[in-house]
Amino acid sequence: xxxxxxxxxxxxxxxxxxxxxxxxxxxxxxxxxxxxxxxxxxxxxxxxxxxxxxxxxxxxxxxxxxxxxxxxx
Length: 73
What we know:
This protein has about 70 residues and is an all-alpha fold. About 25% of the residues lie in helices and about 0% in strands.
């Protein structure tokens, strides 16, 4: 998601602007939930999902105490 489908950098910089001492901005509660989508990303994902199964894969951040593992079944 980071700057591919969602605007991670903009959100990170916004947090750092408000709280410069924040060492890990993405460790804030609901940080990822509130990311703005990259222009055209949602529409593209919807279009692709009509032809393909879409999965987002990521690695949990070891620096983020709010990060958890979700097991897709």
